[in-house]
Design brief:
This protein is mainly α. The protein has a domain at about 20-65. The chain is built from three helices and no strands. It has helices spanning about 1-20, 25-45, 50-60.
Length: about 60
C-alpha cells in the first residue's frame, strides 16, 4: 500500500512540475498590471492631482444618488 501511495505522489509531483507557460488568468493579471502602470504614468505626465481624482472617484462611488 505504501508503494502505491508513493507512486501516486511521485506521478502527481512530476505532472505539476511539467506544466509550462502562463495560464490565461496569469496573462490577464499581467495585462491589468500593465494597464494600471500606463494609466498612472499617463496621469503623472498630465500633471493631474492623482490623490484628488482618487478621492473624487471614491466619494462618487459611496455618495447616495
Amino acid at each position: 500500500m505504501t508503494h502505491k501511495l508513493a507512486a501516486r505522489f511521485t506521478a502527481a509531483a512530476s505532472t505539476a512540475r511539467s506544466e509550462k507557460g502562463a495560464t490565461g488568468l496569469e496573462y490577464a493579471g499581467m495585462i491589468a498590471v500593465a494597464a494600471l502602470v500606463v494609466g498612472l504614468v499617463w496621469t503623472a505626465i498630465q500633471g493631474a492631482d492623482v490623490g484628488g481624482k482618487i478621492s473624487s472617484a471614491i466619494s462618487d462611488l459611496f455618495s447616495p444618488g
